[in-house]
Input
Amino acid sequence: MDEVIRKVVAMGLPGVILVIVMATTGLAGGAAIVSALAFLGGPAGMLGGIAVLGFTGVLGDLLTKIGLELFLMRIYEERAKTESVENLCREIDGLPLISTELKDKVKRIIEKKFLFVLVGRTGVGKSSTINNLLGSQVAKVGDYEATTMSATLYRHEINGLKLAIVDTPGLCDELEEVGNDQQYLELINSKTTQMDSMLFVSRLDETRVTSDEKRGIKLISENLGTKVWDYSVIVFTFANSVPASRYQEALDKRTELIRHEIAKYIGEDKAGKIPSVAVDNQSKTTPDGKTWLGEFFTKVFMRASESGSLPFAAAMKDSLTSSSGEARIDLDDKQKAEVNKKINKLLIGGLAYGGAVVGQIFGPGGIIVGGLLGSAVGLWMELDRRRNA
Ligand SMILES: Nc1nc2c(ncn2[C@@H]2O[C@H](COP(=O)(O)OP(=O)(O)O)[C@@H](O)[C@H]2O)c(=O)[nH]1
Ligand SMILES: [Mg+2]
Output
């Protein structure tokens, strides 16, 4: 661990306050210490000494280099190894000078809760995809009557990561009573800062963007805000329903079509960057002979990591690097290299994150990503409350 981080960790709350004061006020040296003491409401031994005074120099340097966000994540991640997560979350809630959004991010890194949302027309394979991702039959498949707007949240814990996947039936369906989705969208909207990725699910073997999908894209863009597309991935199901000879072409064409529809709200440039991936819920492979789970993981991981979901990438690191047992998700060398590069670049930001090397993904029974779970506890409780209301 970096020496500076180690020192701040050893200081506990006073150390955190000192870091925040320096980052948000630009104060340094004795002035920063005096100010931090004021926030702490009295003399705190560790901040009083000359040792700390001299320390503010190197502290400031590292802060400039990696930024407050990464610094705080790193400190709390380290402290969570020896202190209760519950107490730390309470401490974080009470921190001065920083936004609620930043607090949420820092809490997420120690709680290891992640939220994914699946949207798509009924019947495209959302539930099947969730089951494949989580490696267990948690979602009910083939329910064509699920055209109500009640969202379902599936929770699953994998290697200590708490994943929540929200299945949103109806969002892309032509409904008689559309009255509900406003309320529902507002609800999701209030949680978007906690959403790690939104998966837009559509069939690969179709030739058009259907009117329900267009409506879904419009609803999402207008209600969740266009930013939601920054961390979305387009997932094409029924990959094997397309002949192998036409697979790549179909994937390119379908991607282009969906992106074009989304572009109406965010522009072609941004839409052109939304990644897509093909899966087939009845098979381990796609028509190109590749195992799709690895590609899927890589795409979602990269996207969630890019979209400012540093906590996700950070928490993922341990799962990615565990080395016991057989991996449930196999990454090929290229995928491993990509994920490695991302983890090392993102997490580290110059800081000793320890040069993670992706070995295998999620040991026995493990894996990844699918949905939305964690931060979702709030969403889940809210949905539950409304459902029962
Ligand atoms: N061949 C094939 N069938 C699929 C695929 N995904 C889902 N299905 C089938 O399509 C039907 C609807 O799937 P479901 O997961 O319930 O869709 P949802 O309404 O979006 O949740 C079920 O009969 C699934 O077995 C896929 O990728 N390939
Ligand atoms: Mg379903």
About this structure: The longest strand covers residues 195-203.
